[in-house]
Amino acid sequence: MKPFVLDASITLGWLLDRPVHARALRARQLIVSGWVPLVPTLWRHEVSNGVVIAERRGRLTSEQVRTLSKDLDEFADTVQIDPVMVRNSVLIETARQTLLTVYDAAYVELAIRRRLPLATLDEKLAVAAQRAGVALI
């Protein structure tokens, strides 16, 4: 099992984008082939919020939200949540150095700390991660 950092944009891409972006498909293929997605604790909140916002904007019906919620619960069982409670000072400094939000910086911090590649659809996050020496999927 080889881990990689999975960000919320990839997960939401599977759920919301049609057609699904090639990077999101690649991440899905890695999971199917045995790779383990590793996420910071905020991942569940970000993905859940993305579903709620998509419904509010009319991209999803209430029935689709119910179905996706169940699918996400099942998928979350395959995701490994990083158990480390990262210090605020580390998150703040990572955000400052990368010019990202603290939320996005959490994915970069995890990838750096664990020396893992990152799967993201967020271009700003991808650029910042590469500048920090993180490989992308």
Alpha carbon gyration radius = 15 Å
Q: Which parts are unreliable, with pLDDT below 50 for 5 consecutive residues or more?
A: none
Strand order in the sheet with the most strands: 3-2-1-4
Please bin the fraction of helical residues: 55-70%
Number of domains: 1
Mean pLDDT: 96
Ends distance: 16 Å
**In terms of quaternary structure, what is this?**
single chain
Shape: globular
Query: CATH-wise, what's the superfamily?
Result: 5'-nuclease
The largest β sheet comes out as: 4 strands, parallel
What's the number of helices?
7
Provide the succession of SSEs. EHHEHHEHHEH
Instruction: Please provide the count of β strands.
Output: 4
CATH architecture heading: 3-Layer(aba) Sandwich
CATH level 1 class label: Alpha Beta
Label the structural class: alpha/beta
Structural summary, described in words:
The structure is a single chain. The chain is of the alpha/beta class. The protein has one domain (about 5-130): Rossmann fold. The chain is about 60% helix and about 10% strand. The chain is built from 7 helices and 4 strands, in the order E-H-H-E-H-H-E-H-H-E-H. Strands 3-2-1-4 form a 4-stranded parallel sheet. The longest helix is centred in the middle third of the chain and has 15 residues, at about 60-75. It starts with a strand and ends in a 6-residue tail after the last helix.
